[in-house]
Amino acid sequence: MFSRLREDISSIYGRDPAARNWWEVVTCYPGMHAIWLHRYVAHPLWSIGLKWLGRLVSNLGRFATGVEIHPGATIGRRVFIDHGMGIVIGETAVVGDDCTLYHGVTLGGVSWDKGKRHPTLEPGVTVGAGAKILGPFTVGAGARVGSNSVVVKAVPPGATVVGIPAREVEGIDQGLAGQAFSAYAVTTSENDPLNAILKTLADRSDKADQALADALNRLAELEKSRKP
Fold first, then answer.
1. How many helices, marked H, and strands, marked E, lie in the chain?
2. pLDDT in tens, 102-119
3. Are the beta carbons of 142 and 179 closer than 8 angstroms?
4. Which H or E element spans position 94?
5. Cis peptide leading into 165, omega within 30 of 0?
6. Are 100 and 181 contacting, i.e. CB atoms less than 8 angstroms apart?
7. CA-CA distance, 42 to 38, in Å (whole number)?
8. pTM, full prediction
9. HEC sequence for 167-203
């Protein structure tokens, strides 16, 4: 248990430049408090059949940290919840090792079925602030979900998705091995294919407008030349 606690503390230093020392991390990071309360109290209670007690502990953790993790959810190792306020993780959600979630993230369900209703995040996924991932699909290892995106279908490993509904963007390094951490799951080098299409259409529209204007000017000149 203590080795896992040290592991959680150490993992934060590589993902939050504001972390200055272990005491500050232990006492001032509500996201980590929420994970510990879930891992060592709420989830074990749920697993041994004490469902109500597990829910009660989860609810108390929500009041204390602003993070709501259903006691049935599965949380991996070295998961980092930054800021934490407003995060909701559903009952059948799975958050893999080394994932990072920012404030306002929802891992929700869209079905009334009793089975798998919530998403699975494979190892190394980063989910930006305010993003909503809704449904029983998988977000592949190393993927990035941009802030305020709404994801309603599976995301390939290593991909970056943005928008509502979320779509994959191009033009950034998608390598999983040793990829640099990207705060809020966005970078300045993203190339959104939808934006590229809209820009192309806008350029063609400008050219068509200019060609039409030139044609009208020539017709006007011809009309003037024909007059006596």
1. 6, 15
2. 999 999 998 888 889 999
3. yes
4. strand 94-95
5. yes
6. yes
7. 5
8. 0.76
9. EEEECCCCCCCCCCCCHHHCCCCCECHHHHHHHHHHH
